[in-house]
Amino acid sequence: MSKKNEILVNIKKIKAEDLYRYIYDEIVTFKELQETGNFEKVKQDFVTAKLEEDSVWKQAKYQNSIALYKEYEKKYPEGRYLNDAKTRIEEITEREREDTIWQKAKRENTFKSYEEYLCEYPDGRHVADANNLKAKLKEEIQEKKKVNIRNLLENPDSYTPIGIRGMLERGELSENDLINNHIITAEKLQLFLKPPNQWSEKFGELQTGWKGLKSVPLNRTDIYFLGIAGSGKTCMLAGLLNYCYKEGLIRIEVENPIGKKYADLLINSVDIGYAPLATTQEGVNYIPAKLRSNSEIDREVNIIEMSGELFNNTSVSFDIKDIGVNYLTNDNRKIFFLVLDYQANINASNKSEIASQAQKLDIIVQLLNVNDILSKTDGLFTIITKCDLLPGGVEDIANAEKFLNQEYKSLMRTIDDYWKEYKFTRGIFPFSLGRFMLSQTFDFHPASSKEIYNIIIQSAFGTKPSKKSWFT
Q1: Which residues of 440-451 are buried (b: 16+ CB within 10 A; e: fewer)?
Q2: DSSP string, 217-259
Q3: Are the CB atoms for 233 and 227 separated by under 8 Å?
Q4: What's the predicted TM-score (pTM) here?
Q5: Nearest to residue 191, comparing CAs of 278, 273, 260?
Q6: Distance (Å, whole) CA 70 – CA 286
C-alpha cells in the first residue's frame, strides 16, 4: 500500500499536526483528505490555519519585503516562521544600510567616502567597485591637481576660499602643493584653514550699529572712502589705520564707540594678516581721530566709510541725503577717496559690470557738485585698489593708464572739470595692502598705506606730497 493510501485509510487515527505535515510535504492534498469523508472539522480548522500561515509566509518571502515580514509578525506573534522573519528583516535592513552608504560614497566620489564604505563593509557586495573607483579617482585627482596648481599660479584670486577648502577636502590639492609652489606660506595656510572664529561675529555685531549713528563732530576734516561693494575700501582703511597706529601718527578717539571698536578690529586684522570682512549691511560709520603730521601738529579728522550697499542706493536714488544727516551736508572740510577695484575689471564677466562701477562713481561725484559739497573739498583722489594684480605690479603705470583710459575716461573727465572749477588737490594713486594669498590671508606691505597717509596730510595740512601722483 502506498503512503498516500495508508494516510487516507487511517485518517481518523492520524493527528492534525501530522496531516498538515503530509500536505506540506506534498504527499497528499487537502481536497483528497476531505473526499474521504473522515476528515474531522477540528482537524480541518487546524490544518487550514497552518496552510494560511504558510501562504502568508510564502508571499512575504517571494516579495522579500520588510513590510510583509512585519505583517506576518503582527498576524502570527508565535508563528513557526517568526525567527526567520526577524532574521530577514535584519538582513534587509543591513543590506539597505549598506546600499545607502554605497550610494553616498558614489555620489560624493571621494577617497574619504569610499574608505568609509570599505571600513564599514570590508566584505561587502560593492568592495570590488569601491576599489576600482578609488583607483580611477586617484588618476583623475592627479590630473586635477596639475590643473589646479597651474591655475592658482596664473590667477590665485580666481578661486574662492570655499573652493580652495573644497579642493583640499577632496584631495584635489594638498597643503604641501600650496606651500611648495609658493602659493601661500605655511603660517598663512594655517590661518586660512582655521580663521579666527569670532572674526565674522565681531564684524557683524559692529555693522548692526552703523544705522542711526549720531552726526559726526564738527570743525574737523571729514575723510571719505567711497566705492562699490567689494571694491577694497575696508582693506584700504585697515592698512591706513594700522600704518598710522604703528607709527604713532594717529590717536583714535572714543567719542564714537562703534567707530573705535571697528578701527581696533581693522588694525588687528592687518596684524594677523587676515583680510577684514567687507561690509554686509547698509550704513555709514565714522572714526573720530587725531592725525599727526611730520611737524607734529595734530589735525582732528572724521574717517568715514560708507557701505557699498548704501553707495549703490545713493547712486540710484540720486539723493545725497540717503547717506545721513550732517555727514556730507555739514560744513566740515572734506577729502574724498574714490576707490576703483582693478580686480573687478579682470574678473568681470561682461563690460556692463565695469561700466556699472564707473557710472556709479560718476553719479556720486556729480551729486557732490550739485549739493555744493565740492566747494568744501580739499582733495579728491582716485585710488585703484588691488594694483598688485597689474601685469607689472603696483608701479605698472602704463597698464594703469590703459585701464583708466579704456574704462573710466568719462569719470576722469568729470573730475578734471570740477578740479578746474574748485581747485581741490587731486591725483590718482595705486593701492595694495600687500601680497595676498588665497584671497583672505596676506603679508602686509605698508608702502601704499603710507602714501594714503601722505595724501591726507598734504590735503589737510597743505604740505607737499611725499610721492608724485601718476596724474596731476
Answers
A1: bbbebebebbbb
A2: PSSSEEEEEE--TTSSHHHHHHHHHHHHHHTT-EEE-SSSHHH
A3: yes
A4: 0.69
A5: 273
A6: 70
pLDDT in tens, the chain (472 residues): 688 888 888 888 899 999 889 888 889 999 988 888 898 999 889 989 999 988 999 999 999 989 999 999 999 998 989 999 999 999 898 998 999 999 999 998 888 899 999 999 999 999 999 999 999 988 888 898 999 999 888 877 677 778 888 888 878 889 999 999 999 999 998 888 887 765 555 666 666 656 667 788 899 999 999 888 888 888 999 999 999 999 999 999 998 888 898 899 999 999 999 988 766 667 788 999 999 887 667 889 999 888 776 777 776 666 666 555 457 888 999 999 999 888 766 655 444 455 578 888 898 899 899 989 999 999 999 998 887 777 777 777 777 777 887 888 899 999 999 999 999 999 888 888 998 888 888 999 999 999 999 999 888 776 544 444 444 4
Amino acid at 113: S
Grid cell, residue 366, equals: 556729480
Which H or E run includes 379?
A: strand 377-385
Distances (CA, A) of 372 to 33, 74, 331: 114, 87, 10
Phi, psi of 216 (to 5 degrees): -70, 150
Q: Please, are residues 154 and 183 in contact by the beta-carbon 8 Å criterion?
A: no
3 state SS of 101 = helix
Contact of 33 with 39, CB cutoff 8 Å = yes
Grid coordinates representing 227 are: 566705492
Which residue in 306, 276, 301, 280 sits closest to 290, CA to CA? 301
Asked if residue 394 lies in contact with residue 432, where contact means CB atoms within 8 angstroms, the answer is: yes
CB-based contact 295:215 (threshold 8 Å): no
Strand partners, 286: 304
- Under 8 Å between Cβ of 385 and 232: yes
DSSP three-state, residue 337? strand
**Measured between alpha carbons, how far is residue 423 from residues 225, 374, 416, 469 in Å?**
20, 10, 10, 16
CB distance 8 to 32 below 8 Å = yes
Asked if 425 and 469 count as a contact pair (C-beta separation under 8 A), the reply is no
Separation CA 37–CA 285 (nearest Å): 104
Length of the chain: 472
Cα–Cα distance, 374 to 304 (Å, whole number)? 17
Kindly state the cell numbers that stand for 201: 561675529
Q: Is the dihedral of CA 460, 463, 464, 467 positive or negative?
A: negative
Q: How many CB atoms lie within 10 A of CB 126?
A: 20
- Cβ contacts of 422 within 8 Å, gap of 6 or more: 374, 375, 377
